[in-house]
Amino acid sequence: MIGFDKTLRKLCDASVRDYINPYDHIDWPESIDFDQWFMSPELISLYGTEAYDKLTDAEKKKLSFYEAVNFFSLNINGEKSLVQGLAERLYKRNNDEINNYLHHFLDEENKHMVYFGQFCTRYAAKIYPDKKMYFPREYEPGEQDFLFFAKVLVFEEIVDVYNVAMSRDERVMPLARQINLLHHRDEARHLVFGRQVVKDLFNSRSSGWPTETKQRVQDYLNSYLCAAWKEYYNPEVYRDAGIEDPYEVQESAYENCNAREHRKRVSEGCVRYLLKNGMLREEPAL
Fold it and tell me: pTM of this prediction?
């Protein structure tokens, strides 16, 4: 990771400068008014579909609450795996250059889980479970580390687009806006780190992989992008919001042309970066 030292020092300095205590930084109200937006309407998974258009304004706001809980739950589930993976790589051989920043990365991801978890458990009394399945397999040298950081990058690139939009949307209730802003402030640094690490790992390791391994990695990232998006269309959210036939609604919404265009637009920056650096062979059919 030649030339990365200066960037890492800047990232570490920014993390120290922006350090906050997650337990006293947010004033958590005892209860919240559900007649308000918890997520920007345009980011709700059903937006632009027939099912959404049939809802009253009150029902749309109720749906926005459970969509926010799902979005925060996705972050909690993703960050649990991220924290575990980062901890496993802390002080690992050949990671000397990035160890200092990994400490900040771990600290900040733990804070994020505090924010998201507090919101979900206080006001929804639940966190939607992680439905991803993992199957152990053998890896080529460097493949597992690359895929770990690449998946983190993909997930955080999508999430950050949502964070930025909602942190700026004055329609969204103040507490949700604040949580999205706090997350974005840290994620902006994580994305700088992630793009550099992913690029360096791929360039340094993929040259030694057989052709079929490189193609497998490219296909895996393609599939991961699609799978990550699928979780935004959660039938449990629709059921909790009082929508009938939640699984049919999920399938219809995911295939909706407006939803496809939304996924493509939000993923554009991430996909362009992966294609440019050879980590994808083709644009995913999102």
Answer: 0.94
